[in-house]
Design goal:
This protein is 18% helix and 28% strand. It is an alpha+beta fold and 650 residues long. The strands form 11 sheets. It has a 5-stranded mixed beta sheet with strand order 21-29-28-24-25, covered by helices on one side. A 4-stranded antiparallel beta sheet has the order 6-12-15-14, with no helix packed on it. The chain has a 4-stranded mixed beta sheet with strand order 11-19-16-13.
């Protein structure tokens, strides 16, 4: 709108095409036919205060007018139907040209060079980033089969639940299945579905409102959604990604059954920034049905030169598609949307990291790769289902996947990344201690400046000698908990070996700008068991082992000594009435030259028992020797005195 309050409408094609909307003959005809309605109680004089495009890309204007009855100023918003105004203008121009034609022929070349313009998009969801869900309204068993406020509340609650599940679902990836946040909720409701269906069909449900879990699911373009002909408002392209679609043009048939020339049926493309975006076309002509097909590729050139988190820092580039001689000349008629301009389509391309993409640690893929490297996997003695467990002596080779929340698909991450340990805990991963920047550099940088926690398994994973850079092919690390590191002196939980929870951060920041515009960062916690024992634990174990060994040896020696000691046989008691052997004491001849005294007692059997007494036997040669004491010279031999005792010298 210029200073003279003229409203001009234009399209930027090969050249800028402008047409006057108001005042114009087309606007007057459109207003006369009742297209531009103004309430009867307003003056015809009006003044436009503002003109703009709304969110639906419809031209709107703000006008000021005065009420006839109250003489008060009123502000009104009114839409300008551009297609209707231009179509009426074209009709008047064609009528004037027909009137001035002196040949008498009523055939005129149509103003629009094509009859059909159709776009065909397949698998558009990864680029449009629109999530599609199937959410049917609840079933009602009312007599009129109409929904009430209660049933609409149920439907609103279900929609809220679906949105909450989509936003708060845990990011889990699997190579064989898609990420579906609704699936867990649907599976939990399926067992009750036959019962709910029975009571609903038999009118036993008090609320008379029922839902079916099968009516709530996430749609995917490559499975559930057919190809569409509606061009999206905007698409998102990552580094060197390509968006492909097809454009079909069918020539217009004139009144004499002649068709427009197919050579003139062409598509032109206008790009706002050719340094960032490249658009290429491939033209095919089909003479059988008088149509032309264009295969269009919209590709990122990879010149953006920056990384950002998903959905942030996007760079918009505009692409306009025009059919020759069609801007402001072609119209389409629709019952619901009315007349629309045709022949020109605009597409906004957002270059950068698309929203909804995440880097996720693939636990199943990591264990699968571990099984291919080792014959056996040593799992934790006490496994924790929330945290995957790995063995300290085995190489840790993590696998990562890129999860796209828009499509639910995940793909193997093959870019470069760096990995560091940012925290850990001995027994409670929820209260893990996070390291400061100095500790992170000390424990992770491979330059020998301090005790490290890990080291790369392959020297090809080093980036510049101190900061390791990993890829999918070289992703293994070896645990090396040196003394002084947090995991270097972990106490053992007897009888199990030491365990430690590691909090690991993986990012491709500043190391993968050549393959993606996305800055992926993820954190995950793993459990490592079988750590090396500390010196204190070794001393305690050796001390306890020696103590237990000595105790076992002492018990063994004592048991063996007790076994070797002879057992004393108990003396049998003799009864007086029993017959005992008859002893006979006989003094043997002793040599006078012997220095020792010897006594030989010969026991002979006898009969009968007598009283028990002592007999003093004096050794010959020493009986009258006063130099010997009485106790040395006397030999006291306990014996049994029988009835008849025979002694040579007594």
């Amino acid at each position: 709108m210029n200073e003279q309050c003229e409203v001009w409408y234009g399209v930027a094609a090969e050249t800028v095409v402008l047409k006057l909307l108001r005042p114009s003959s087309g606007y007057s005809l459109y207003s006369f036919l009742g297209g531009q309605i103004t309430p009867s109680d307003f003056h015809e004089e009006e003044q436009t205060l503002s003109i703009f495009f709304d969110a639906d890309n419809q031209l709107q204007e703000i006008i000021a007018t005065v009420n006839n009855s109250t003489e008060k100023l009123r502000i009104i918003k009114r839409g300008l139907e551009v297609a209707d105004i231009i179509e009426h203008e074209e009709w008047l121009l064609r009528k004037e040209e027909l009137r001035q034609d002196d040949t008498g022929s009523f055939e005129m070349p149509p103003p629009c060079p094509f009859e059909v313009l159709r776009f065909e998009f397949t698998n558009i969801q990864p680029y449009s980033r629109l999530k599609q869900y199937k959410l049917e309204a609840p079933y009602v068993s009312f007599n009129d089969r109409l929904h009430t406020a209660e049933s609409l509340k149920v439907y609103q609650a279900i929609v809220h639940i679906m949105k909450s599940l989509d936003e708060n679902a845990p990011l889990e990836v699997n190579e064989l299945t898609r990420f579906d946040p609704v699936n867990a909720w649907r599976q939990s409701k399926l067992p009750l579905m036959p019962y709910n269906d029975y009571i609903f069909r038999n009118h036993l449900l008090e609320s008379q409102i029922a839902i079916s879990p099968l009516e709530y699911l996430k749609l995917n373009d490559d499975i559930d959604v057919e190809a569409t002909s509606v061009m999206p408002e905007e698409i998102f392209l990552d580094h060197c990604e390509i968006f492909r679609f097809a454009v079909y043009l069918t020539a217009t048939i004139n009144q004499g059954n002649s068709t427009s020339s197919l050579d003139d049926l062409r598509l032109s493309v206008l790009v706002s920034d050719n340094n960032l975006l490249q658009v290429s076309t491939n033209r095919e002509v089909f003479h059988l049905n008088n149509s032309v097909k264009y295969q269009v590729d919209v590709a990122d050139r990879g010149n953006l030169g920056s990384q950002s988190v998903p959905g942030v820092g996007l760079r918009p580039v505009s692409v306009t598609f025009n059919v020759w001689n069609s801007p402001l000349n072609c119209f389409t008629h629709d019952v619901y949307s009315g007349n629309q301009l045709q022949g020109t389509k605009s597409l906004s391309v957002q270059l950068g990291c698309p929203s909804g993409r995440h880097l996720v640690f693939d636990v199943d893929g990591t264990f699968q790769q571990l099984r291919t490297s080792y014959a056996s996997i040593y799992d934790c003695p006490i496994p924790d289902p929330k945290y995957p467990c790995f063995y300290y002596k085995q190489e840790f080779s993590p696998v990562f996947r890129l999860l796209d929340l828009a499509t639910g698909r995940s793909s193997l991450f093959t870019g470069q990344y760096s990995m560091i340990v940012i925290g850990g805990s001995v027994d409670n991963p929820t209260n893990a201690e996070y390291f400061n920047n100095q500790q992170i550099a000390q424990y992770n940088v491979q330059n020998g400046s301090g005790p490290i926690i890990w080291k790369p398994a392959d020297v090809r994973s080093h980036g510049n000698g101190s900061v390791p850079i990993f890829t999918h092919e070289y992703s293994g690390i070896l645990w090396n908990c040196e003394q002084g590191s947090p995991c270097g002196s972990v106490p053992m939980n007897f009888p199990w070996p030491p365990e430690y929870y590691f909090v690991i951060q993986v990012t491709n920041r500043d190391v993968d700008s050549d393959s993606t515009y996305c800055e992926y960062t993820t954190q995950f916690t793993i459990k490592v068991h079988g750590l090396e024992l500390s010196k204190n634990d070794l001393v305690i174990i050796v001390g306890w082992s020696l103590g237990i060994s000595l105790l076992i040896i002492l018990i063994f020696v004592c048991c063996n000594r007790a076994k070797r000691r002879p057992k004393r046989k108990p003396r049998p008691r003799r009864k007086r009435s029993r017959v005992a052997p008859m002893p006979t004491i006989r003094e043997s001849e002793l040599s006078d030259d012997s220095e020792t005294d010897e006594e030989v007692l010969n026991i002979e059997e006898g009969f009968g028992l007598g009283d028990i007494s002592r007999v003093n036997v004096n050794t010959p040669g020493v009986l009258n020797d006063p130099s010997r004491s009485s106790h040395q010279s006397n030999l006291h031999v306990p014996t049994i005195i029988p009835r008849h005792v025979t002694s040579e010298r007594l």
